[in-house]
Amino acid sequence: MKTIHKYPLTEKKTELELPEGSTVVCVHEQHGVPTLWIEMNLNVNAPMKKTTFEIVGTGRLLKHGNEQYIGTAFIDEFVWHVYQMIDIQDVIKDISNIDF
Asked: pLDDT tens digit string along 39-73?
């Protein structure tokens, strides 16, 4: 079974502990705060994974090079873009599982 939980992003960088396989389904403004809605498995035995999200203003530099765009929230005159930091070790693990 799955459910959707919401996570307000009140800091520039937010670290969440989420069940593996969780998916961001929406980024939107709620009560003046960029907010994520994340679909996740309700299996209590699912392995948890630390996931970091970062808010970047329009025109600002992406500093790390391992960001994946998630969505945009419009708040008053500001436009905030939400990125998920990609763990390079996960990418290497995914590539190593590809059967060439």
From this structure: 999 888 889 999 999 999 999 988 877 899 999 99
Exposed/middle/buried for 37, CB within 10 Å: 0-12, 13-18, 19+? middle
Tokens matching residue 33: 């705060």
d(CA 13, CA 62): 13
CA 69 to CA 72: how far, in whole Å?
Answer: 9
**What is the Cα–Cα distance from 97 to 35, expressed in whole angstroms?**
33
3-class secondary structure, 89: helix
Q: Which two tokens stand for residue 91?
A: 């990418």
Query: Could you give the CA distance from residue 39 to residue 3 in angstroms, rounded to a whole number?
Result: 6
